[in-house]
Design a protein that fits this description.
The protein has 106 residues and is mostly helical. It is built from 4 helices and 2 strands, in the order H-H-H-E-E-H. Helix content is 36%, strand content 6%. The protein starts with a helix and ends with a helix.
Length: 106
């Protein structure tokens, strides 16, 4: 019944991954109800990334004892993951993978 409502009544495209998820986050339900359920294309994602790179926030220096604000693991260690930083506010460094997960569930 839910699939019918999403596809026929709310007109969510069949290729949208929301249809095949076991559950939806609150922001995903909100997107569907407001009609903002389009899947971002690679071109749009690259444009958004370029827009955020022009931010005036400067990256803060990383100390040896700094940790990722999201996963609380050390930033500087052997075999550490690639880093990015908060370009919209604080300038703190975080793991790129952690930032991606956080942004998706924000």
């Amino acid at each position: 019944h839910l699939l019918f409502v999403l596809v026929k009544l709310l007109r969510v495209p069949i290729e949208n991954p929301f249809l095949w998820q076991a559950s939806l986050l609150d922001n995903e339900v909100d997107q569907i109800l407001r009609g903002r359920y389009q899947v971002s294309t690679q071109r749009e994602l690259r444009r958004q990334a370029a827009d955020t790179q022009t931010s005036s926030v400067q990256r803060k220096a990383i100390d040896e004892d700094d940790v990722c604000a999201i996963c609380q693991e050390e930033l500087v260690e052997e075999g550490a993951e690639p880093l990015t930083f908060c370009k919209q506010g604080c300038g703190n460094s975080v793991h790129a993978k952690c930032m991606k997960v956080w942004a998706e569930h924000k």
